[in-house]
Amino acid sequence: MFVRVKEGRVIIELSLSLPKRSWKIRTKFRRGRRGRWVEALGYYVFTPRVGDVIMEGDAFEWMITNEEIRDILLALKHVSPDEYEVIKEDVEDVRPSDYINWQEVKGPLRVELDETGIIVEACLRGKQRKPEEPTPHFFLVFPLDRPSRAHFIMDMWGNVVREPVGHKITAGDRLVWEILDNRWIKEVTVLIARLSKAHNSRMKKKVLKVIESL
C-alpha cells in the first residue's frame, strides 16, 4: 500500500500486479485451478496477478492491517489534525457495550461509502489455519468492474482504465482510492475498534499509541 497526499486529500494506491496475501479478488468465476470458494458469501477469492482479466462482478477485497490504517491516519493527521483528533477520541470512547454482538448478527455487516460502490464490511470468518474457529474480519471492498468518483484502476503510465471489464492486469496496475470525505476514514477506524476486545486493544496500542509517539 502506498499513501500520499494531494491537494489536501489522502490518496491510497494498492498494487494489482504485486499484491499482498490480504489483497484478493472476489469473483463469480473461478480462474483455472485458482480460487477458494467462500460458501457463506457465495463467491470465489484469489490473489490477483499479471495476466488476469477483470470480469463483470469482480471486486477487490482488502483486509486492512493495523499498519495500513496507522499510515492512513498519519496522513490524515498531516492533512487535518482536528479530524484526526475526533477519530482518536471516538476510538478511545469505545466501550465493551459498543462491541458488535456477533451472536445477534445475521450475515456480514455492510456499509456503502456515499454511493461510490465501495463497501465497508465486517463479518465472521474461520481462521486461516483453523477454519472451524470463526473470528471477526474487516474488509474494504472495491468494485473492479466499474470505477467511481472515488476509485479507479490506473496503469504504470498514469492512465485511468475507463472500461475495466475485459482489461488484462499488467505490471504497474494499481487500484487508486481517493478519500473525498474524511468521514470514510472514521467509518473504517471506529468499526475496526468495535469488532472485538482484541481488535480494540490493538487499535489503541498498535495504531494510536504509535502515532502519538512519533
Query: Oligomeric form of this entry?
Result: single chain
**Strands side by side in the biggest sheet:** 4-5-3-6-9-8-7
In percent, how much strand structure appears in the residues? Answer: 25-35%
In whole angstroms, the N-to-C terminal distance is 20 Å
Gross morphology is globular
Helix content: 25-40%
* Rounded radius of gyration (Å): 17 Å
Mean pLDDT over the full residue set: 92
Give the topology string: H per helix, E per strand: EEEEEEHHEEEEEHH
**Total domain units:** 1
The profile of the biggest β sheet is: 7 strands, antiparallel
Number of helices: 4
The low-confidence parts are none
User: Which structural class matches the secondary elements?
Assistant: alpha+beta
Number-wise, the strands total: 11
Keywords for this entry:
214 residues, alpha+beta, four-stranded antiparallel sheet, 11 strands, globular
Characterization of this structure:
This protein is an alpha+beta fold. It has one domain. It is built from four helices and eleven strands; from the N terminus they run E-E-E-E-E-E-H-H-E-E-E-E-E-H-H. The chain has helices at residues 66-79, 81-92, 183-193, 197-213; strands spanning 2-6, 9-15, 23-27, 36-38, 43-46, 59-62, 109-112, 119-126, 134-143, 151-154, 174-178. The strands form two sheets. A seven-stranded antiparallel β-sheet has the order 4-5-3-6-9-8-7, covered by helices on one side. The chain has a four-stranded antiparallel β-sheet with strand order 1-2-11-10. Strand 1 (2-6) and strand 2 form a beta hairpin.
